[in-house]
Amino acid sequence: MKEGVSRERIDHYLKFIEFTGRHPALSRAVLWLAYRIPPLKRALPVSMRIYMGGRILESYRVDKQKGEISFGGVDRQIVGAEFPEVVFRNLAQLAGKEEAQRIMYDMHFRIMEEQLQKLDLEEIFPRFLAHLFRQPADAKRLESDPTLARLYGEMERMLLRLLFSESGWGRPEFDSTPLPSKVTVHKSVESVWMRPSAEPVCYAMAGSLAAFVSHIAGKRYAARETSCAATGAPRCEFTLESVE
Questions:
Q1: Domain that holds residue 212
Q2: Domain count, the chain
């Protein structure tokens, strides 16, 4: 995490975030009206468009000739919500349930890993902040600098929202930032489509979370689901541990 971010700009940014958090109804109304101004909308980074009430689909770039869509410099594919269940069922028929679980985890670890490596951070975050995510989080520096820690936490939550919630996979919440030991996921798409189950089913989510935390940490992390909504639990829970 490099130096060079203006403290004044950080303070203004955090005050804006905190004000909107304290006055949600007023903020939603004002931000939504501002978001409808076309020149302003085009000039804003993706994270601010989403924060002001936009949807991630509005930020996709569409190449009709090639039949491709992309977001933040990464090619994307839109699939139905039942996609994880269909893929898992077919893998289990071909290779067995345990192998299908491993494949789902590894496949989504690699997908998330590649997305994070290719993301155009200046398209997503305000330019004066984008560089903070180009390097692994400096946990010691964040511990000694509460203001920077708050800023990093806000950016991390926005990136989780863009890559998970807005993409339809579920809503992850970290127990701590930048590196969590536990993650709670609300409405995991796997738990919705693969219930009821006698055991946890969110292997794609586990792989994606492990890759996300590994990217933030700069070293390999593994995720394990300890509680799953598909089994009747109120939400899905995962533990994260370093494997290096």
A1: 7-242
A2: 1
